[in-house]
Structures are given as structure tokens and as C-alpha cells.
Write a structure and sequence with these properties.
This protein has about 160 residues and is mainly α. The protein has nine helices and no strands. Helix 7 packs antiparallel against helix 8. The longest helix is centred in the last third of the chain and has 26 residues. The chain is extended and about 65 Å long. InterPro entries: MFS_dom, MFS_sugar_transport-like, MFS_Sugar_Transporters, MFS_trans_sf, Sugar_transporter_CS. One of its GO terms (cellular component) is membrane. Belongs to the major facilitator superfamily. Sugar transporter (TC 2.A.1.1) family. It is found in: Membrane.
Amino acid sequence: MLWALILGIGLMFLPESPRYFIKKGKVEEARKALGRVRGQDPNSHYIEAELNEIRANHEYEKRMTPETGYIGSWLLCFSGSVGLASSNVRKTLLGISLQMMQQWTGVNFVFYYSTIFLKGTGAVSNPFLMSLIFTLVNVLSTPLSFWFVERFGRRSMLLWGAI
């Protein structure tokens, strides 16, 4: 509960994003928020250039996405055909499938129950230490995985992982 409370209280102090302010039409608030996030003067050329990029992206998204309201925007995730590579339903199903398959690997069991499981088997003299090693390997492998994805690309890493 302590970590959840820290996160919940910390969220109260988290500022709104510049994208949110642009979406609401509050350009000056977006400029201040972006300046704060980037540690720059809100009137600097760097902030102005990034703000223009955010504005242009928002305008593009407005042109490309039909105005359907809250429920309609969620339903757009399921529009199109599974056979079409660019359809929303195919992208949504791919994301859901990847997450589901990641859960099927059993990694949560290792992180949550490894100490209890290893103690029950009696095969390891110090199950807590072994569980700590599992977690340490995961923590140290995460930055390495980011490097691999940036170096070789998401698709090729996904294909090699599937093989």
C-alpha cells in the first residue's frame, strides 16, 4: 500500500502535458508546461519549434480522425478488416495478442512466487537469494533489451524472439 500511496500522492503534483493543453486550445499553458519539462525559457526558439510540431501533429490527427465522440473513438480501434495490414482492428488485435503471449511466458509466476515455489521444492538452499538473482537479471537485462530494439529494430527482434 505504501508504494501505491506514494504514486497516488505524487500524481497530484504531476503537471498536465503540453499535448493536453494544445488539445484544449490553451497554447500559453502548453508553452509554460513544455518549458518546465525541457528546463528551458518558455519563449526560447527550441520551445517554439517543439510547440509548433505538437500543434501541427494535433491538427493532422484532427483531420485524420473522424469526430465520433468518446465511445466512437474507442470503437475506431476495431474498425477495418483483419486482412488489411493498415486497419485499426488488426493493429489492436496484434497489440492484445503480444501482451497475452507475454503473459503466457510465465514471467509473473517467477517474479511473484519464485521464493515460495523454490522453498517448496527443496532444491535450493536459499530461495530468497535465487529469487533476488532472477530479479537482478531482469533489471539488468532491461536496458540491454532497449539497446537491442534500437539497434536492430522492433520487427526483427520480434521475429527472432518468435523463432
